[in-house]
């Protein structure tokens, strides 16, 4: 019996054999996706990343090694098992060099196959656990490591890792300063779009009259001052990810056009009449209650449901206090070397003061606090007085508690 829900992609051109494997795996509790050739396998891989790939070596339009490479290009950690009735040492070596976890010769004993899959599912689970928090993985993919070992962060990280390789639109929810753009970048870098652009736009930072132009661009002569064609963010992100921060601030007049772009994957520049195809994956973020905005008729209900296919709520810092020491030490080392040209540490008393504080500005406030302390401190150890945290009696503290 499968120890955890898992999806197995079976790639086999013989219908009877594929169906037999499917029945065997479904009886063992696995979910199964079928593909009869290389083309279908590639489509299945892009549609829903599997937990394990089980592929025949000989396919009508290619080989199992091509399936293996396609799977590894989308998710380097997915285990792949290659099966063949024409096994050879050379083929086994080639499969293993390309990253196959196992190479089995047909006919395969069902019980042996289930044992192999059980081991690989557990291997996949361990590889994926805490992936975003691993420094070496962040270095490999070139994005800042998400720091945090708290249960809340572990849960968010695991959900993010499952949705990232898909094409699903993601809505990130969380207070200001929780690092929503960092999570959006992680989604992009863990997807098959990571080689294409990541384009970010802050809807709250752009004047309402210019938002449509920023998103869709304009043609020459579209309005006074339009001396040439301008490409919008949708086109700049073609093939990659478009991140819209503060999506709740998107003007109502632009929301219908944005919804149409999401659904049709086409845009029309201002002043233009031609529809332009845009293959982008959209990730949006907000610190507003969009459901309340829908009720207040300031946000379109249909757009809300189109964006909220998969929601991720980033916990505020006060709900993950156990992560504060790791974050504070990371910022202390960073700004110590940048500002003081030496290693800066935090005293136990300083760490306790940080953990006792609520941080309404979340990680952004914590980072600012540590940077300021690195400027003000006399030595190389930050003390509570260097942090200058607001107190209940300070003006800033009273404002935060009012």
TrEMBL record:
Coiled coil: none annotated. Pfam families: AAA_lid_14, Response_reg, Sigma54_activat. GO terms for biological process: phosphorelay signal transduction system; regulation of DNA-templated transcription. PROSITE patterns: RESPONSE_REGULATORY (PS50110), SIGMA54_INTERACT_1 (PS00675), SIGMA54_INTERACT_3 (PS00688), SIGMA54_INTERACT_4 (PS50045). One of its GO terms (molecular function) is ATP binding. Keywords: ATP-binding, Nucleotide-binding, Phosphoprotein, Transcription, Transcription regulation. The modification 4-aspartylphosphate is found at residue 56. Gene3D superfamilies: 1.10.8.60, 3.40.50.2300, P-loop containing nucleotide triphosphate hydrolases. InterPro entries: AAA+_ATPase, AAA_lid_NorR, CheY-like_superfamily, P-loop_NTPase, Sig_transdc_resp-reg_receiver, Sigma_54_int, Sigma_54_int_dom_ATP-bd_1, Sigma_54_int_dom_CS. Residues 146-375 form the Sigma-54 factor interaction domain. SUPFAM superfamilies: CheY-like, P-loop containing nucleoside triphosphate hydrolases. Residues 7-121 form the Response regulatory domain. It comes from the Bacteria. This is Two component, sigma54 specific, transcriptional regulator, Fis family. It comes from Chloracidobacterium thermophilum (strain B).
